[in-house]
Amino acid sequence: MSMKKATTLADIARRSKVSLSTVSLVLRDKPGIPQETRQRVFTAAKVLGYKRKLRSASHQALPHTNASKLHNLGLILKSEPGLKPLINPFYSQVLDGIEETCRKRHINLLYATLPVDENNKPVDSPRLLSDNQVDGLLLVGAFVDETLAHVLGQKTLPVVLVDAYASKNHYDAVVSDNLRGASQAVSYLIAHGHRRIGLVGSHPNAYPSLQERRQGYFDALHIHGLTEFFCADSSQQIEEIKQAALALLAREPTLTALFGCNDHAALAAMQVLQAQGHRFPDDISVVGFDDIDLAHDAHPSLTTMHVDKLGMGRMAVHLLANRLEFPDSEAVTSVFSPRLIERDSVNKLS
Q1: Closest listed residue to residue 273, CA positions, set 249, 296, 295
Q2: d(CA 139, CA 165)
Q3: Which residue, 130, 191, 228, 310, shows the most beta carbons closer than 10 Å to its own?
Q4: Inter-CA distances, 234 with 48, 199, 313, Å
Q5: Are 335 and 177 in contact (CB under 8 A)?
Q6: All structural domains of the chain with their residue ranges
């Protein structure tokens, strides 16, 4: 019999309709939170059966089962325009992996959000970066530009990037093998007889992980001797993805397959093209990337590249603890290999 999944701070935030940082502050008895909000968080925690394990930062950290120096961990999660961090189906699972590991290792977890623009470049700096409450930081899903790199460089805190990228400084990092995974996805379509394959959900200056997946698309075509490529360039805004997909099919009506740089893009393209009368996979096959929950629930269910998002979160905490223990060691990049999940969205051509 499977055990019930432990309640996380993310669960409490969803139920009480407040931010992760607010939940963290309330459960650590920090001042400055309205009483009505505080009561809502406590009620949600009680209903969900959450066991309070966090203490005020002024108290001594919880006892450890090992000699780790990581007592208080700061998590900075990107906040995209018009999208709350908890709604992001990729990062919410990464966060669950981080929180699970912190709970097991008795590490206090503090949250903050980092506002970013449509290209994941920071537009503000969270206060957590200037506070002295944490022993190390996890930066999730954002690009470390020169401004943020300068702020981080002023502190002696160790930093681990999680599906995040830096143009200059070398940080420990946890990423997925986007290039090889995308090449595998497109090669899967080619093995099923598809030769005219479109790309949706990226543009040449997209976030680095999307650029890598875009390059994987080109690599697979080149490896198999295919010289024609078809790109529906767009940002990650859902309406832009839909309009780009419609324009691509209008321009190239003989396409038989699409590769989405992530499931978000693949599902958006499927939705708008189905509304135009296209049938999946009879008319068009599609493969995504990430294996978010919605991929399984789509009609047809989406063939995609599974990324171990929980594992990425767990590994990030371990890398941060290792950096504190061995501060002079070389920078480490942990790469998670995606694996293909076959479902119902790909048709084999004769």
Answers
A1: 249
A2: 9
A3: 310
A4: 40, 10, 28
A5: yes
A6: 1-56, 178-307
**Which residues contact residue 23 at a Cβ distance below 8 angstroms, ignoring those fewer than 6 apart?**
9, 12, 13, 16, 41, 111
Rounded to whole angstroms, the Cα distance separating 241 from 93 reads 23
Question: Is 90 exceeded by the pLDDT of residue 3?
Answer: no
Quote the distance between the C-alpha of residue 285 and its chain's center.
25
Q: 210 with 263: CB under 8 angstroms? A: no
Region of residue 120 (left: phi > 0; alpha: psi -120 to 50; beta: else): left
**Residue % of the chain over a pLDDT of 70:** 88
| 80 CA to centre of own chain | 12
The CATH number for 178-307, chosen from 3.20.20.70, 3.40.50.2300, 3.30.470.20, 3.40.50.11480, is 3.40.50.2300
Q: What is the mean pLDDT of residues 317-334?
A: 92
**C-alpha dihedral, 4 to 138 to 30 to 153, nearest 10°:** 180
pLDDT (average), residues 203-227: 96
**CB within 8 A of 46, min separation 6: which ones?**
none
Q: Are 309 and 315 in contact (CB under 8 A)?
A: no
How far lies 26's CA from each of 46, 50, 87, 111, 232, in Å? 13, 13, 21, 12, 45
pLDDT in tens, 104-152: 999 999 988 888 777 667 777 777 777 678 899 999 988 887 777 777 7
Lowest mean pLDDT across 66-80, 221-235, 239-253: 66-80
Identical fold for domains 1-56 and 178-307, yes or no, is: no
The single-letter DSSP state of residue 173 is: E
Residue environment code for 221-250, b if the CB has 16+ CB neighbours within 10 A, otherwise e: beeeebeeebbbbbbbebebbbebbbebbe
- Does the predicted model carry a pTM greater than 0.90? no
